[in-house]
Structures are given as C-alpha cells and as structure tokens.
C-alpha cells in the first residue's frame, strides 16, 4: 500500500513538474510575443514618422499657434518681439521685385529693407487674400525667382537690428508627441483606457515643454548670438526632450499602469 502511495506521489510530482515546465515555456513565449509586438509597433511608428517627415507638410495653423504662444512667453519675459503670419523675402536684385512690391502692398503687406533684400510682412490677413498671396508667391517660385516665404515668424528687435526666428514644422513639437504616443500605444501591459489617459496627459506636457524649449532657445540667440542658439537648439534641447518624453512614459507606467494592476 505504501509502495503504491509512493508511486502515486511520484507521478503527481512528475505531473506537477511537467505542468510547471509547460507554464514556464508558455510564459516565456508570452513575454517574447509582448516584446516582439512592442518592437513591431515602434518599428512601424518609425517608418511612419519618416514617411510623414518626407511629405514636407506646411502645418501652417500649428506653426502659427506655437509661434504665437512662444511670442507671448518672450513678451512676458520683457523682450521686444512681434509675431507675423506672413513674411515674403525677395532679393533686391530680383527682376520680380517691382511688380511684387505693388502686388504685395495691395494685399496689405508692408515692406522693409534687410541685408540686400526686401521683406514684406503682415500680422494677419483675410483667408481669401492669403490664398491669393500663396498662389502668387508659388507662381514666382515656379518661374525660378528667389522668393522666401514663411507663415510663422517671430521678429525680435535687438538694438535696432532685425533678429528673426522662422517657426518651421519641426518646431511644432509633433515629433515628440508622435514618439510618446507610439511608446504608450506599444506598451503591451496597459489597458485601452490607461493608454488613452496616458496620451491625453502626455501630449499637453510635451507641448508645454516645447514652448519652453523655443522660448529659451530664442532668448539664448538674442542674448548670446546665433552660435549659442545653435548649441542650445541642436544639442541641449534635443537631449532634454528625449529625456522628458522617456520620463513621462516611465511615470505613466509607474503611477497609472502598475498602480492599477496592484489594485
């Protein structure tokens, strides 16, 4: 009887070991699947980011909103700045300048001389006039004339010398927002509502940090020159934005995803 019981006990132990091994294999496969899915989503996001970047999107509305907010911060800091919705620069030796001066003036832009060129500026414009302006400047470019346009310009008066910042699509902060959204969506252990909460919390914080980035970068250039602006823009803030995005992601995991799991 004891021998039979011993054999039964051994079989039970063997069965437990087999179940334990199978469970362990299943867990490893499950973890591997999660890692693979996470990597695949990030890889897809990276490809999508490259494709969007290659489209040369103008992002006119977003650029203007960011430029306005940055301009407001700079003015609060005591800087003499002005935001312009339209800027058109034509070299003084361009054959198109006389006609362009007449056309652009009629559309409400005022001209001024800047380092061998004439710059036409407008703080705001009616939508129909804006479309006329775009068609006209695009036509000049198509004819081979050198014409430089921007829909979002911050002009800083530095002891009478023009110091201007063109707010380009990369300045909007969409790349940082795209990255944090991709990290949140790719995270495998989060529920849909947790991911949604993470996105609506992270995106505004990325935007606020981006406004701080632009304001401090512009101030650095205004106070210490273009070389210092390039250092702050290209090295300091690129590193800080990556750290900020990763910090937000880790905080989201720690206090929203894992906290709810513990509950």
Characterization of this structure:
Helices cover 68% and strands 14% of the residues. With 263 residues, it is α+β, with helices and mostly antiparallel strands. Strand 6 and strand 7 form a beta hairpin. The model has no long low-confidence stretch (mean pLDDT 87).
Topology:
Blueprint: H1 2-54, H2 60-76, E1 81-84, E2 86-91, H3 97-106, E3 110-114, E4 117-122, H4 127-142, E5 148-150, E6 153-158, E7 161-166, H5 174-186, H6 192-224, H7 226-262
Antiparallel strand pairs: 1-6, 2-4, 2-5, 3-4, 6-7
Helix pairs in contact: 1-5, 2-6, 5-6, 5-7, 6-7
Question: What can be said about this structure in brief?
Answer:
By secondary structure, this protein is an alpha+beta fold. It is built from seven helices and seven strands, in the order H-H-E-E-H-E-E-H-E-E-E-H-H-H. The radius of gyration is 29 Å and the shape is elongated.
β content, as a range?
A: 5-15%
Class from helix and strand fractions? alpha+beta
Give a short account of the largest sheet. 4 strands, antiparallel
Order of helices and strands: HHEEHEEHEEEHHH
Unreliable segments (pLDDT under 50, ≥5 consecutive)? none
Q: How many individual helices?
A: 7
> Gap between N and C termini, in Å?
48 Å
Largest sheet strand order: 3-4-2-5
Mean pLDDT: 87
The global form is elongated
Task: Tally the beta strands.
Answer: 7
**Radius of gyration (Å):** 29 Å
- Please bin the fraction of helical residues: 55-70%
Label this structure with key terms:
263 residues; alpha+beta; Alpha-Beta Plaits; 4-stranded antiparallel β-sheet; 3-stranded antiparallel β-sheet; 7 strands
């Amino acid at each position: 009887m004891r021998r039979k019981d011993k054999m039964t006990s051994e079989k039970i132990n063997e069965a437990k070991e087999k179940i334990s091994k199978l469970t362990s294999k299943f867990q490893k496969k499950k973890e591997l699947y999660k890692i693979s899915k996470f990597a695949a989503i990030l890889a897809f996001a990276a490809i999508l980011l490259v494709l969007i970047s290659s489209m040369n999107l103008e992002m006119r509305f977003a650029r203007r909103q960011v430029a306005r907010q940055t301009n407001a911060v700079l003015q609060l800091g005591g800087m003499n700045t002005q935001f312009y919705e339209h800027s058109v620069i034509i070299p003084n030796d361009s054959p198109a300048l006389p006609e362009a001066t007449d056309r652009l003036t009629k559309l409400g832009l005022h001209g001024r001389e800047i380092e061998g060129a004439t710059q036409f500026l407008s703080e705001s414009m009616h939508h129909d006039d804006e479309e006329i302006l775009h068609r006209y400047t695009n036509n000049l470019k198509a004819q081979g004339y050198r014409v430089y346009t921007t829909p979002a310009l911050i002009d800083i008066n530095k002891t009478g010398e023009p110091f201007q910042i063109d707010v380009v699509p990369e300045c909007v902060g969409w790349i940082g927002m795209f990255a944090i959204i991709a990290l949140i969506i790719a995270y495998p252990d989060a529920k849909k509502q947790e991911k949604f909460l993470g996105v609506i919390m992270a995106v505004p914080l990325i935007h606020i940090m981006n406004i701080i980035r632009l304001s401090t970068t512009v101030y650095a250039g205004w106070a210490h020159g273009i070389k210092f602006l390039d250092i702050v823009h290209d090295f300091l803030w690129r590193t800080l934005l990556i750290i900020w995005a990763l910090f937000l992601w880790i905080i989201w995991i720690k206090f929203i995803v894992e906290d709810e799991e513990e509950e």
